Amino acid sequence: MTSGAPRSARGTERRAEILRAALEVIAERGYRGASLAAVAERVALTPQGLLHHFPTKEALLVAVLAERDQWDAVPGTGWRLELLGQLVEYNAMRPGIVQTFSALLGESVTEGHPAREFFTQRYEAVRANMAQVLRTEYGERLPSGLTPERAAPLLVAVMDGLQYQWLLAPDSVDMPAAFRDFLTLLGED
């Protein structure tokens, strides 16, 4: 059911169930190790039944990533830096989701990976959104003299880099506290 036709409530429910199962399988095995058969088995479908909802493994992956982004939707305007801190705290409560996202991001840097375009476009939008957050907070120049556009990739790098460090050493890296420390470096109270 990937056409523009309206979905039944049962079809929409089934699709959400498949996306949750796919997220679990990818978290356990990585994208390359995940199979459509393993996802289908988790939702009591045949692989052919799964293909009715998602015609390819790549289509399923992109749907999983888009769904995950809906959970964390950060609008381009109206966010303040302290709310980004709340997003970091929220992510600290969802290690499985963060692990899956991080694994897929890492895999996507290889040539030909089906999520490469998704992440490339996503990061372009995220950097623009973060530049707007910084502009709202500081105007055209941060206290350091950097423009919001120059600082935005650094803000994104801190958020993502903290996730990797936290996943590898959750007892040693307090992700929310480290992000608050970064905001202090930016000049936040």
TrEMBL record:
Keyword Oxidoreductase: no
DNA-binding region: 35-54
Keywords: DNA-binding, Repressor, Transcription, Transcription regulation
Matching Pfam families: TetR_C_6, TetR_N
GO molecular function, one term: DNA-binding transcription factor activity
InterPro entries: BetI_C, Homeodomain-like_sf, HTH-type_TetR-like_transc_reg, HTH_TetR, Tet_transcr_reg_TetR-rel_C_sf
PANTHER family: HTH-TYPE TRANSCRIPTIONAL REGULATOR BETI (PTHR30055:SF234), HTH-TYPE TRANSCRIPTIONAL REGULATOR RUTR (PTHR30055)
Name of the protein in question: TetR family transcriptional regulator
Species annotation: Streptomyces dioscori
